[in-house]
Design a protein that fits this description.
The protein is an alpha+beta fold. It has 2 helices and 4 strands; from the N terminus they run αββαββ. The protein has helices spanning about 1-20, 60-75; strands spanning about 35-50, 55, 75-90, 95-105.
Length: about 110
Amino acid sequence: MKSISKAIATAALGLVLAGCTGTPMKTQQYDSSQYTVIGHSEGKATGLLLFGFIPIKQNDRFVRAQNAAIKAKGGDALINTQVQENWFWAYVLTGYKTTVSGDVIKVNR
């Protein structure tokens, strides 16, 4: 019976730790001769934390906001990046609204 309890506890811990991992927002350094600035843009993404521990679209919201900003101008990357985050609370959940803004560039190929 103890081995079953240990297995359940280990599995639960594994699920909790796996649910807490996020996707890193990647940025690269470019020399000014490597790109053309298309214009300023901003993208937004929201993630929720249900009951304080169940993530819903939470872990990749920075990347989703960054991609939305790049896609809005049809570019390849974002430079001079700024990140803002606001949160809201609604009884059983906490929401996190992320805004990523910066200059969208087209990389010279």
